[in-house]
Amino acid sequence: MESLGNLGDGFLTILTPMNMLWVLVGALLGTAVGVLPGLGSAMAVALLLPVTFSLDPIGAFIMFAGVLFGGLFGDSTAGILMNTPGNSTAIAGSIEGHRMAKSGRAAQALATAAIGAFIGGILSSVLVVFFAPSLAELATLFGPAEYLALAVFAFVAISAVVSESVLRGLAALVIGLAIALVGVDGMSGAARFTGGLPELFDGINIVVITVGLLALGEVVAVAARRGTTEDLRVMPSTGRLWLSRRDIRLAMPAWLRGTAIGVPFGIIPVGGSEVPTFLSYGTERRLGSRRADSMFGKGAIQGVAGPEAAGNATAGTAMGALLALGLPTSATAAVLLAAFRQYGLQPGPLLFERASDLVWALLASFFVAMTVLLVLNLPFAPLWAKLLKVPRHYLYSGITVFAMLGVYATSGKVLDLVLVLAIGLLGFAMRRYGLPVAPVLIGVILGPLAETEFRRAMAVSEGDPSVLVSSPITIILYLVLALGVTGLLVQRARNRRRARTPRAVSS
Fold it and tell me: Which segment of the chain is annotated as a signal peptide (predicted)?
């Protein structure tokens, strides 16, 4: 009851005309920056940080709440409409979301993303309000072996699920792991695959990889089809605003499952929402494969609903971990930690005592910001969808310009522009030969984490490999992974057998 009373005080603080204006401004600016390829929610918070210098702390953090959740929706909007997600956290939802857009259901995909973001964010914020201290204790259960098991689970699950061929999925994963090796080894300090270039000592920026594989790869693929029948076909857009009852029946379980997957990952410092969004996508794809009318590969609404809910649920509980422990579990949380310090505040257990008004106003602003975004973005979904009616040569040339500007803005390195072009050609080649892109990205994102945690586990155990399966968490993860992959292989073998049977009968 004390939490409810404190939350009520937070609502009284922010429900004033000026503070509501800051929420609205933050939501609009966050969405606008998030839509730009190569930027995204973390960059939105970083770019808009100087704007808040003249505001009081409560006004500044209320605006940050709008920027944070607005940026997440902007990431998804760019990914769904143009296959250029503003951030890596929006990649999983863009896989099916862009296919929905190409089949004329862009507005429905955007509405699904908006509602999923609202459900995931609201439910995770409720948990943060009531259970922040208890949720934060979960992070203490994860050691090096558990983080490694989590990374291996994500590697194999995504590689096996997103491709019709497990071998192609694993081949794409190897490409991602190879790219992740570029840079200075954090454990030994040795430079790897840098060609002696100091600019590569920090590795290849995830923004460069994401923009190259997704944005530039898609642009080159479209350019290669110029003049063909497929190129002449204009992507239709029905512009329908509301989801049908069937859409909601399909999406609702995925929204809830995505939220359940995303909530714990906000407390675990694995770098952001990439793992839960991909796990949610993999879960929905496995469940969808059991349906005779599965739309996966053609634009399945569950493939948008689950990852979007998971991403926002993770963002919500990540803020809980930041406030309760001072632990930034994502890039966006790290930028917000810098914002707290800018105002002389240190997130952690004492923050609830020393700045109670600010903390509860910020938590209340989460609910308000997500409601504002839902009200704003549902009506705007058909308008965003009309971007697909822009002639392709204008649309994709604009994507290229914004993508290159976004890459250059993040680092100021000319080498990054060369790298994004090279990776774009790699993305085109992968599309040409049927290799999935998602395993490359998951390998790049989680490869360094897996390597570091494996070496830490070996160092602590003095080379004893049994430490990798010495806890209930690791055993459960590996068992679930083995059962899931076995079931998937059996299901695909049955499908191939069924496909051959009609041909054998007809002959």
Answer: none
**Cβ distance 250 to 302 under 8 Å?**
yes
* Cα-based distances in Å from 322 to 126, 345, 473, 505: 16, 12, 24, 62
Angle between helices 392-411 and 414-432 (to 10 degrees): 130
**Residue 480 CB neighbours (<10 A):** 12
Supply φ then ψ for residue 271, to 5 degrees: 105, -5
* CA torsion angle 334 337 339 341 (round to 10): -140
Residues 287-317 have pLDDT tens digits of: 877 777 777 877 788 888 888 888 888 888 8
Give the distance, in angstroms, between the CA of residue 82 and the centroid of all CA atoms in the same chain. Answer: 16
Contact status, residue 477 vs residue 153, Cβ threshold 8 Å: yes
For residue 466, give the DSSP letter.
G
- Separation between Cα atoms, residue 303 and residue 289, nearest integer Å: 12
SS3 call for 271: strand
Q: How many CB atoms lie within 10 A of CB 2?
A: 6
Residue 216: alpha-carbon gap to chain centroid:
19
pLDDT of residue 232: 38
Q: Do 94 and 214 meet the contact criterion of CB atoms below 8 Å apart?
A: yes
- Decide the pairing of beta strands 183-184 and 191-192: antiparallel
SS3 for 137? Answer: helix
Q: Mind listing the pLDDT tens digit for each residue in 244-300?
A: 788 888 888 999 998 998 888 777 655 557 778 888 888 888 887 777 777 787 778
> Can you give the pTM of this predicted structure?
0.65
DSSP state of 330: B
Are the beta carbons of 157 and 169 closer than 8 angstroms? no
Q: Of the candidates 299, 258, 298, which has an alpha carbon nearest to the alpha carbon of residue 275?
A: 258
C-alpha separations of 69 from 32, 49, 370, 492, 500 in Å:
12, 15, 7, 39, 48
Q: Which helix (H) or strand (E) holds 192?
A: strand 191-192
